[in-house]
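Subject: Protein entry, chain in single-letter code together with its fold tokens

Area: Proteins and the way their chains fold up in space.

Attached in line: The record itself begins immediately under this heading.
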Amino acid sequence: MDVFKYEPIDLEWPAFRLLRLLKGTGPDIECELFQAWLHGDSAISYEALSYTWGGTELSEHIKTNERSLDVTVNLYLALQHLRYQNLDRILWVDAICIDQGNEKERGHQVQQMGDIYNQADSVIFWLGSATYETSVVMDSLKRLHEEETKHTCKDWKLADKRWTDLWQAVQPTLRSQHTGLEDRQRAGMELLLKRPWFKRVWILQEVANARAALVCSGTKSVTARIFALAPLLIGVQPEPHF
């Protein structure tokens, strides 16, 4: 298969590229890369990916516009977990949507980074692959979110005792599904908070500019608002920089 080569984008305008992650299953990932514009009536709905590159070695391959494009293992895993089986997904992914070999383009795109994250329908904080313990945490938070929808808690602060009451309300069902539930929740939360994503300086911009955000581990996801409650509810003390 021929190697993918970037076509130039219009650097005189707020142009950028988006990635259509084609639906499917299995190890082979297929995408389409196309030019789009920020602002105006021509803006396209998309999600922005926030993740760690996980090194610079481009050891994996994806098919992009019918050609082969090399990517890092971490990005390959992120795309595989985020891909829908029956629906295409439009994403902005820095390592693919920016021609990393074009210094002028990189500078142009970095200047637009805040707007790219701000205008995304949501920002996906991908923390990496799942373990059993991290899946227990994500399942627990999903149940909390389901319970939340039954209450008018939009204005509740993080330390509001009512969150603890909702958390306790979902625990009995979870205990019937997982042995040693509290220990697994704590271990899973500690694992997630140790993920490299939390050590990236760039996440400050990505978090600050997100209108809405999803935290993802493996194929499981929860809103960033619910995820922010987890350390308090589970009893895990985050590092000061969190």
